[in-house]
Structures are given as structure tokens and as C-alpha cells.
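request received
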Amino acid sequence: MNNDSKKKSQLNSSQNAKVGENISPTLLHFFRRKWLSIWRGNPPGSVLLLFGVVVGLIMSIPIIYVMWRSLFAGVDSWVRLLDGRIPQLLWDTFSLTFAVTLFAIIIGVSLAWIVIRTDLPGRKLWQWLLALPLVIPPYVGAVTYIIVFGPSGWMRDFWRDTSWLVETFGDYSLNIYSFWGVFFVLTMFTYPYVYLISSAALRKMNRNFEEVARSQGMSTAQIFWKVNLPFLRPAIGAGAILISLYVLSDFGAIAMLRYVTFTAAIYFQRAGFDTASASVLSLVLILLTVMILWIESRTRKKNKYYQTSNTYREPEILKLGKWKPFALLYAILVFFVSVLLPISVLVYWSNIGIRMGALDNRFFGFAWNSLKVSLFAAVLCMLLALPIIYLKTRYPSVITTVIDKLCYAGYALPGVIVALGFVFIFNNHIPILYNTFIMVALAFVVRFLPQAMQAGEASLSLVSPRIDEAARSLGYPPWKVMYKVILPTILPGILAGGALVFVSSIKELPATLMLRPPGFDTLAVRVYFEASEAIYHLAAPAALLIVLVSIIPLRYMLKKY
Amino acid sequence: MNKMLKLFLFTILALGLVLAAACGGNNEPANEPENEKVENEQDEQPEEEVVELDGEIVVYSNRNENFTLPLLEKFEAETGVEVVALHGADALQIQEEAGNVQADVFISNDLGALGYLDMQGLLEGHDFEGIESIPAEFRADDNAYFAISARARGFIYNKDMITEEDMPKSNEDLFDAKWAEVENGYAITRGGNGGMIGHISALRYEWDDEKTADWIKSVKDNAAGVMEGHGDIRKAVGAGEHAFGLVNNYYFHQQLLEPDNNNVGFIYLDQEEGQMGVVANAAGAGLVKGGPNEVNAKAFIEWLLLPENQVAFVGESLELLINSEYGAVYPAEVQPHIIEFTDLKVQDMAIKELGNYFEDTKALIEQSGLDLELR
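response:
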């Protein structure tokens, strides 16, 4: 497609230049008409288009490569895995994904409703306090819960030293290394996705509908189920897909809590260099992801609810009455387990670690590595995102849609798969870049480019195409218009996108683990290794720094929802 | 738009054009600018410190980072060569990178892995100065790899939960299902653990594959816990989560140093008359063929062979030196429990034979139902 489109557009421009001078062959006429009709008479410049096509291809190559490898993994691997491994993995992965998604929705929606629609004391404060778990990567959360509830954690000590507990319940028997441990940790650190989206939806809900319902004699509970919830369905669906895709792709929390899903299995197969099995498992995981995306797009099509904006009135705040203490307790409880406790544990161990000299040259070396690779990825993403979103918004067509979709491939799929593709490609075909930090940064670009695109798109949608036209009329080619005229206008949006990519990169774990060159550990990698060796005084300062950095995009997220 | 922002934008643009060109060329040959940049970056650092050696050395190690790091830092300090280390590396990574060799030296916990790499032609022999200090049965014929420290397999047990008399004393004992009944049961590592692979290779040498497969099945069925590594086992046994666990002897030594949970004992397996002797393994290093810094790699190995550095190789691991006369120093808590390697009854198979079994053993373990990786 790449070469074709280039040729076509070149033909185009030469055609344009020679209009009237030569008799064009009919075939060319036909192609030209076809080409123009694809673009609705407004084709982009060839530089811009070529750029977009190349970026789209780069984004999807790792995944295509993994699929290709899995086809040649040999019947042996397929039979062995289908017989023994895959059914169990499917069950473990599915049950966890389902349970976490369900409970994260329940917690997220209920909290959003309480905070937005009731007179909860300090509701303005709670609105953002309850979004805070967003800044704690689940693997960091897992570390803190192992420290507290692990087999030799604080809780065990407390239990052992409290005689009535031992007498009534016997020995400490809580097992954090179990389905329930993983379920709990993932739920507590992913519910904010649903919470934020539902809050936004609830805030926009028109009061008129509820008043009609109330006039029909419905109670608050009935209104919630019959009026609010249906309106929330798109929000819930969006949150559910974010969470279930996250659970499918999570590696850190799952590995630390010794539970194995597809993602972890792929990582471990790869770590043992059984690449054939790793690619077979990857293909299954790709199918699972595509299935979830498909289910989501199906349900979204069926549920469309419209709100009339011209009669919009703010929803009224409901009185909690006797439920007030319970609602408050609920909010406090969730805040305690998802923010206060983990942060306290990190601060406690960081304090010990810093006094033991954890902030030494090695630590700053790791921090510098993290910074370097994340910054590099962020800058690359900002640069690559711009042409794509420009193409997409100014030149809508089948081709741009395909490019756009290709760019999302790495975003929807787990990092281990992208990393697996990168290992194959670079080791075999681009050896010069193999085992360099650039390889890691490029993997981040494939993973997180859509974050930069989304942020930029929001800004670009506010810029009138008239501005482009004016610039074009002065003789600028499209790519020049983009960089000279559009970029300065939408810079804040692009920078916000870069910040998002930066933060996602700095906490990314599985791809970094698989691709980091020798001697290039990042903070995330150190948290993983130190925590799995139970050296918490070294893990905690790195984890705390990651959490602090993650606060950067919180403002953006809160503004967006 | 103020001036600062414009300047920033311009910088990004300028940077970006270079990067975009390089990045766009990912699947096309046109990516020179970026390559040069990488190489320059790597060259810059060593130039500043010119001692007798310079440049860098890439070390892949599958030993615990805490044992290897001080050794590598010592080398760095004494020679000025920058050590670029990949800890937790798998031997097979060297095999996979054979077309694009990255490592200069591979340090391994398991002589079987080194032997395997040598058999694949991935290691290179050399007439190292000081190599004769390593007994012939602990090094390859062409010295492509060699061992420095040894460990023996056995059971760490929690003295609060089980007495020495009640413990199993041989590999054969583990066929008995009664060990599943012990309070809190016992623990083993996952099948893919280097120590476990070595152990099972030794059993295959002593018995046959069928009996070994039965042994793996019994152990898998009767064990109460399957763990990622031996460190997890010693901690769990010390804390009373399991009554005993199959580990290497130095994990017992390490547990003795813990401030609490240290009431543990150790059983060396199969020491009686007519029994097979303890399963042993050794840690050592090998020279990777075609590595990027060959001169430094050879210098590193000769440095490693100095008696002082053989001691440093053992480091905090509390393993036993093959050359025990070099005198590794153990903490006071551990010293009384040290049994020199020469005083143990060891299996018949020469440790460097392990490499011949490496690959088939992994297959047998998986077929017998013990997963190589944790599920």
C-alpha cells in the first residue's frame, strides 16, 4: 500500500501540473477519479501521507510479526499448549478479568453516584481524593499489600502478638498469593477508570428525566436503576473495557502475587526462551483482546441515549439522611485501602531505605535511565502523533482510518506482545539497535502513541480548517501548514499528550523487563526485582518516586472527565 | 505564544526531524544517524579513565545479583573497565543472540548451563593464566568454562516443626507419599530452576529416565509448595510455612544469618554407605565466543582466577570454595555448620557432565508434569 499510494499521489501531482497539455490515458483518469473520490476530492500531500503510512506500519509490525511467528511455532507447541496449558490459563485469565471488572464497576459507579449526587460531607474534596489511586501503578500497590498482608507481613506479626485473635481464629491464614489477593489489588487500583467516567456522565445528566420519573411515583432506588443506570451504560461500558483490557495486560501485580494469566505466562515462557510457546500464547491473547474490543463495539452500537441540551438543568443533590454515616464510611474505607495505606507503607519503607543510603549513585542512575528513555519516547510520540491526527481530522478517508486503527494496535495489546515482537525483529533484522535503550523507547512509542494522539486530537478539533485553507492559499504544502501553523496553536494539547506518554513510560514494566539492554535498569524494573527479593527498603524509594511522577497527568485526567 | 515556548518548540522540531528520519527508517536500511549517535554515546565514557585496560565488558549472569554485583564492582575499581551487567540472564539468551553476540562473559550458577553452551559451540577456550588452580574435573578440556564454587543439595528444615530423625535422608525417601502428611508439608522449586534441573540430571545419570520421571511425579504430587526460587523456600521454612524444603546448602547458611526465623537445620542427602551421594553443582564462568570486548573478557577471567577473587566470587553467597584452601571467610553463625566439599560423599557423575543432560532434562521435567515456570 505504501508504495502504491506514493506512486498514485505522484501521478496526481504530475497530472495536476500538466492539465490541458497532454491527453491523459483513460486508465490514469480512472485512477485519478478513484483516488480523489477516496479523499472526497481533497487528497493530502504526499509527504504527509507517506509519513502517516510509515508510522502506521511501524506501529503494527511487532504484532503482525508475533502472529506470523506463532503460525510457524510448530504443531508440537500448539498441541502441547492446547492440551495442557491453554484451558487452565483461559479459565484463570477470564475469571480474574471478569471478577475485577465487575467489582471495579460496582465500586466506581457507586462512589461516583454518592460523590456527585448526594450531600456527602466534603463531597468536593472526595471527588478528587477518590481518583487518587490512579497515580499508584498496580504493581506498586501489590508490593505494599505484600508488605502488609504477606506471609511474613505486618498483619501476621500483629496477629501472632494478639492472643485473642489466635485463640478465636487459629494461626494467621490469610494468603495474599492467591486469586483473591490479585483480585483485591487489581480492583482497588483500577476502579478509578470507571469512577471518573461515570462521574462525568452523572454530572451531565439532565434533571428533567429524573423529575418525570419521580412524578410517576418512583423511589430514589427505582430512579437509579431505571433512569440513571441506563444513561450510565455507555460510561460503564467504556470503563469496563479499559479495566478488562488492563487486567488482560497486567504483568507486574500478577507476577508479584504469583498468579499466572496469559500475559505472565508469555513473559515467563520468553524468560525461559521458549519463544515458540510464547508466540502461541500471544496469539491466543491477541484473540482474547480482539474479542473484548468486538463485544464492546457491539454493545455500544445498541445503546444510544440522547440528552437534549436546550432544556438542561443541573441534577439536584439528594439528601443522604440516615445513610450519611454509612456513605462516608464507605468512601473513607475505599480511600484508606487504595491510597492511604499503600502510600503510608511506601513512605515508611522509603524512610528506612533513605536512612540506610538507598539514594546512592545506583539509584540516581536508575532514575536517569527512566527519565532518559521516557523523555525520548514522549518526544517521539509528540512528533509522530501530529501528522496522524492531522491526516485523520483534515483528510478523513478509508486510508486514514486504517492508519489510525493501526496506530492503536500496540495500545490495545499487552506490552509483553509488543516486546516479544520487538525482540524478534531487532535481534534478527536490526541487530545494530538490538539491546539499546532506543529499542525500549520505540516499544513505548508503539505502546503509548495513542495517548499522545488523543490529547492532540482534542486540541485540534478546536482549530478551524479555515486557518489551514488560508495557509494553503499562501502556497504552503500540507506538512508545512501542519508544523508552522497548526502546531503552535495546539501545542498545549500536544505537550499534555507527551506528558501522558512520559508517565506511562516511566511506570511501564513488562516491555522494559524484556527489552532493557544489559546495565540499563529503570526504576520500574528495580521495584520489581527488589520487591520480589523482599528488599523493601530499596524497592520503596523507587516506587514512591514513580508514584510522585504519576501525579503529573492526574490534572489532565481530571480535566478530561 | 511567548518566546520561550517558541524556542522549545523549535528545539523539539529540530530534534524531531532527525529522529523521525531515523525512526521512519526502522524497516528500511536508512537509519545511520541514530546508529552513530548510539555508538558515540557508548564511546564517550571509557575515554575519560585510561588505566591499563579501558573500554567495557558485558557480563551476563544468572547468579543472584547481590552475590555478583560486589565482584563486578571490585573488577571495575581495580581495572577501570566499565562492567555492563545483565543480572538474571538465562543461558539460552546467549544461544538466541548467537547471530548478534552481545555478551563477553557468562557467569552461571549451574555448570550444566555452561556445559550446554559449550556443546553448542557458543563458548571459546583459551589458555588462561591461573587456570591450573581449578581441578580438571571442574573445567572444560579447553577451559572454555570452569567452576569456582560448589554447592550440595539437601533439605533445610525447621527445627521447631520436625526433628532431624524424622527427616527424609535420601532421594529415594521422597517416593513415599507420607511426606505429604508432615505438618505444613514441604517445598520445592519450579522445574525450570537451574538447581532443580541439575538435581534431576544427576538422578537421570544415577537411575534411568523412567524412575526419574516417577520421582518428579512423586515430588510434584507430595510437595505442599512450589516456589520460584530457593530464596523463597528458605524464608518459608524459616518462618514455619513449610516444615522443610529442597535447596542448596548455602541457602541454609543464609537462613542462619537471619535475625529471626533462623532455627533451621540441614540434611545432606544420600550420605550412607551404598547411597548415591549428595547431588552437587557448581557455579563458574565461561568465555563467550565472538563477544564484542574479547581482550577485556580474557583479562576478566584471569583476574577472576586470582585466589583473592575466587574468594570474592563466593562473596555473600556462602557457597563452598572448590579451592577451599583459599579460605573463604564465613560469619560466626555459619562457620560451625560449614562442611567442606571434600568431606561430602558426592554423586559419581562429574559435575561438568551436567551439560550433556541440560536440554533432555528440561523436556523430561515438563513431561512428568512439573512446570518449568510457576503457574
